[in-house]
Amino acid sequence: MIENLKEIKKDQLLSEVKKFADAKARFVTAVCNDLGDKLEVTYCFNYSPGMGMSSLRIVVGKDEEVPSITGIYLTAVLIENEMKELFGLKVKDIAIDFGGHMLLAQDSPVLPMLKTSEAAGGKGGE
């Protein structure tokens, strides 16, 4: 269980992230989890000094677009590209979009972190 976790709706994401930026919190990372028919994304922030973390969590359908937070925290560009490549999270308007090849090569498995059969159907997947 994550302490200081706030469940929000997708349309609240940018306004909630902006609150962290306005409060001078650091963006730490985001984590994506395949729930079967949906994807869960948890964004983690830290207020300096200290080790305490606060998090935001959204749950979206696999076909839904999620707004990029890179307009607020450019450092999120790597994790958003990673979630897009590995889970197929449809992130809209990433500041720097690697087009699905930041981590994966042309012949790599497609969406290798998904639990569904989509993950095994790509090149290199069994």
Low-confidence region ranges:
none
Helix percent band: 10-25%
Q: Give me the side-by-side strand order of the main sheet.
A: 1-4-3-2
Average pLDDT confidence is: 90
What composes the largest sheet? 4 strands, mixed
Q: What is the H/E string? A: EHEEEEHE
Distance between the termini: 33 Å
Overall body shape: globular
Rg on CA atoms, Å: 15 Å
User: Number of DSSP helices?
Assistant: 2
SS elements, strand count: 6
Percentage of β-strand residues:
25-35%
Tell me the layout of helices and strands.
Elements: E1 5-7, H1 13-22, E2 26-34, E3 38-46, E4 53-61, E5 65-67, H2 77-87, E6 90-92
Parallel strand pairs: 1-4, 5-6
Antiparallel strand pairs: 2-3, 3-4
Structural account:
This protein is an alpha/beta fold and 126 residues long. Helices cover 17% and strands 29% of the residues. It has 2 helices and 6 strands. A 4-stranded mixed sheet has the order 1-4-3-2, with helices on one face. A hairpin with a 6-residue loop joins strand 3 (38-46) and strand 4. The termini are far apart. The relative contact order is 0.17. The model has no long low-confidence stretch (mean pLDDT 90).
Question: Which descriptors apply to this entry?
Answer:
126 residues; alpha/beta; four-stranded mixed β-sheet; two-stranded parallel sheet; 2 helices; 6 strands
What is the compact description of this entry?
With 126 residues, this protein is α/β, with parallel strands linked by helices. 17% of the residues lie in helices and 29% in strands. The protein contains two helices and six strands, in the order βαββββαβ.
